[in-house]
Amino acid sequence: MGYCSRFMGMMLDKSAISMHNAGMGHAQRVQTSGSVCFVRAYAKINLTLDVLGRRADGYHALATVMQTVDLHDTLCLTATDDNRVQVVCTRPELSNEDNLAARAAQLLRERFALQQGILIELRKRIPIAAGLGGGSSDAAAVLLAMRQWWQLSLSPSELQELAASLGSDVPFFLTGGLALCEGRGEQVTPLAASLTNWPSSIRWVLLLKPAIGIATASVFSGLPASDYTDGSYSRAVITALQAGSLPQPEDFHNSLERSVLERYPEVAQAKVDLLQAGCPLVGLSGSGPTLYALFSELSCASQVQERLQAQGYEMYLSHVISPNQGDIRVL
Ligand code: C5P
Q1: Active site residue 169
Q2: Whose CA is nearest to atom 8 of ligand 1?
Q3: Is 209 one of the annotated active-site residues of the chain?
Q4: Minimum CA distance residue for ligand 1 atom 11
Q5: Which of 28, 46, 287, 296 is the most buried (most CB within 10 A)?
């Protein structure tokens, strides 16, 4: 079954459950504490991505260490009376109901049989189809904002389940920060290493987005078993970070990188250019094409950014961040 039909099936199930739980056959209105709600949705990078093997359901078993960075989209939610979800995005190709943020809102409306419609204005800054989790983060932000703003009664495990039904990366963005993600990515373990002992030598994150988009499914589907790993790269990075020390450069491993560099020469060239510009540590985020370079000093990161921007690359200078509830603002 394709993702869309699985999603539709799940929506119908959830709708039926929510009607049953609510003990009523009609839609309800929610109490809102304000008329507009702003929320930030941060991007992530994958410090490691161990693909452990292929699962019976077609997904791949992962162990991946993810970290949020301060590059973010901004969403503004407004309650409407038109009983539908509408997305207006600064990238017109995302202004539609298939947008994961719209699906997240619709999922909650079905789950709680909500009468209100919602307008989602989405200021997109995170590059699309880039390996930075932008769509997943937008969806998680909508779940968190609607739950808080409309005071929806959802336990952490119910929220996690809804998030996982939207995409493998969505549960990570419910908490963000530094986490180990396992299963197909949806089993999230926040890591004890906090930003207070984050190694200062990797505090600045320079992102380079090659001028292509990559569909995650295509990268996973072509992955040979010889690129599978046993999870040891993720374990090594976690051990180092929990001790407040810098992981070995070779432990920033991504099982998808070899095939992405082989299939997409633009990404391979961008990696060469980052290394030649003097970046000490370069990794591929998710299924790419975005590469990240880690720096201790802003001046070094900024110099590389200027040099590679002059070569025509799309670059973002960012830093690691732990999001918190203050990122949701009701006006
Ligand atoms: O879960 P999500 O919809 O983000 O995944 C997109 C696609 O990436 C899946 O349909 C699947 O083809 C692939 N994928 C995978 N193994 C994972 C996560 C994603 O094969 N752990």
Answers
A1: yes
A2: 217
A3: no
A4: 217
A5: 46
Out of 50, 52, 99, 216, give the residue to mutate to test ligand 1, the one with the largest number of ligand atoms within 8 Å of its CB: 216
Task: Write phi, then psi, for 2 (nearest 5 degrees).
Answer: -70, 165
Chain centroid to CA 326: how far? Answer: 19
pTM score of the predicted model: 0.89
pLDDT, one tens digit per residue, over 229-274 is: 999 999 999 999 988 899 999 999 999 999 999 999 999 999 999 9
* pLDDT tens digits, 123-150: 999 999 999 999 999 999 999 999 998 8
* Pure H helices in the chain: 3-22, 100-111, 134-149, 156-166, 172-175, 216-221, 232-242, 257-263, 265-276, 298-310
In this structure, is the dihedral angle defined by the CA atoms of residues 241, 242, 243 and 244, taken in order, positive or negative? Answer: positive
Atom of ligand 1 nearest to the CA of 61: 21
Q: Whose CA is nearest to atom 12 of ligand 1?
A: 217
